[in-house]
Amino acid sequence: MLNQNIILFDGSNRDDLLPLTFTRPIAELRVGITSIREKWQRFSDDVSWLTKEYLSGKFPARIGNYNLFVDSSLIPTKNLIDALDKLESDQVLVSEGEPLAFKSDTFLSPEKILSDREHIVFEHKIISINNLWDIFEKNDEVLRLDYNYIINNRKSAQLSKTNNIINPENIFIEEGAIVEFATINAKDGPVYIGKDSEIMEGALIRGPLALCEHSVIKMGAKIYGATTIGPWCKVAGEVQNSVITGFSNKGHEGYLGNSILGEWCNIGADSNNSNLKNNYDKVKLWNYKRERFVNTNLQFCGLIMGDHSKCGINTMFNTGTVVGVSANIFGSGFPRNFIPSFSWGGAAGFSNYTLKKAIDTAKIVMARRNIELSEEDIKIFEYTNGYSEKYRK
Questions:
Q1: 72-102 residue pLDDT tens
Q2: Distance of CA 142 to the CA centre of its chain
Q3: Which residues neighbour 91 within 8 Å (Cβ) at sequence distance 6 or greater?
Q4: How do 5-9 and 198-199 pair as beta strands?
Q5: Average pLDDT, stretch 111-130?
Q6: Distance CA 66, CA 5 (A)
Q7: Residue burial 245-275, b: 16+ Cβ < 10 Å; e: rest
Q8: pLDDT at residue 111 in the model
């Protein structure tokens, strides 16, 4: 334990992580088994966020007299925790000239940090989420780190003998989870099955996999690693190297690969995404900060979908498609590979999805899970709608 007040601050890479960070600080991104914030809570009882003003009502900073400010894109590792534990108030931990963390009673800009403090160079490898594709690209590595921490000195619940299991010692199942007549191959990576989750009969699973609490893998699904599902998600069809975040559903057949779904998303039946270009070229992805498509240097890159977005049945997403917040996509053909927030339509064209209708739909969807759309959530909707207006014209 660091026994310090940790404040996870959003750096200049925040806009590189839009549209996912329209509705959350970087620290609330899920990679591996837990969110980044939950990883840091293993080392301190007091962890909060320092983010954009419009998000701070829902995600407030708790600044005390003595605080450890940490770049929110960092994944905690043993070497990093050891270095932070030794850090003194007149020092800043840096890697390749960039500040990783510092101690202060107030927040300082990165320029001020670097000019006024003694630099302590962190010479070990860092794991950080700086681009959208880092979430699925680094999911394997981070999932293994989370798994080893979560299962440490704990005993797994028993898997039913109806299942076909390879490498059972690499599988951890929490109490309340139900797994019957499934095939789970954990030879290539661990499989974590969360509390009150379910893997239905006929499902085919290859690790590494994190099935978070109250999530369901439906009958006959084919799930390849490294994939994270949940919490509170339902998934069917074929999924590979993807992160499906809380309360989102892909409940039917269709392929999702090298992709990320935000919260409260829904993928219609038999919808598919391409994750490989026909000419095998590197994939370009829309970047909000640069307002243009940037090269990911990846051959495999699929769909990035912001919170509360949905698609109708048989939707086809092209390689490297970015969908904003609260968009609704439907119809035949391939829609364009950058779809702004609050857009309604498909390949034939888009119109504005009005803010009122989007909020009304979100209230209905969230009420099904007994969750209320708060006034702070509505303010986030309003900001995102205004920010995205120029892209919808």
A1: 999 999 999 999 999 988 789 999 988 999 9
A2: 12
A3: 102, 103, 117, 118, 119, 120
A4: unpaired
A5: 87
A6: 7
A7: bbbbbbbbebbbbbbbbbbbbbbbeebbbbb
A8: 67
Taken in order of first residue, the domains within the chain and their CATH numbers are 5-130 (3.90.550), 135-392 (2.160.10.10)
The mean per-residue pLDDT over the stretch 382-392 comes to 96
In the chain, the amino acid numbered 391 is Y
For residue 118, the model assigns a pLDDT of 87
Mean pLDDT of 28-54: 96
Instruction: State the pLDDT at residue 38.
Output: 98
Q: Tell me how far the alpha carbon of residue 200 is from its chain's centroid.
A: 24
Joined tokens for residue 358: 């989007």
- Supply φ then ψ for residue 110, to 5 degrees: -55, -35
Burial of 332 (0-12, 13-18, 19+ CB in 10 A): exposed
Task: Report the Cα–Cα distance between both ends of the chain, in Å, rounded.
Answer: 50
In this predicted structure, the answer to whether residue 115 has a pLDDT above a threshold of 80 is no
pLDDT, mean of residues 263-276: 97
Collect all residues with Cβ–Cβ distance below 8 Å to 83 and sequence separation of at least 6.
93, 120, 122, 124
Mean pLDDT, the chain, integer: 95
User: How far is it, in rounded angstroms, from Cα 79 to Cα 178?
Assistant: 37
For the chain, the farthest-separated pair of C-alpha atoms sits apart, in whole angstroms, at: 63
What does the H/E/C string look like for the chain? CCCCEEEEECCHHHHHHCCHHHCCCHHHCEECCEEHHHHHCCCCCCEEEECCHHHCCCCCCCCCCCEEEEECCECCCHHHHHHHHHCCCCEEEEECCEEEEEEECCCCCHHHHHHHCEEEECCCCCCECCCCCHHHHCHHHHHHHHHHHHHCCCCCCCCCCCCEEECHHHEEECCCCEECCCEEECCCCCEEECCCCEECCCCEEECCEEECCCCEECCCCEEECCEEECCCCEECCEEECCEECCCCEECCCCEEECCEECCCCEECCCCEECCECCCCCCCEEEECCCCEEEECCCCECCEEECCCCEECCCCEECCCEEECCCCEECCCCCCCCEECCCEEEECCEEEECCHHHHHHHHHHHHHCCCCCCCHHHHHHHHHHHHHHHHHHC
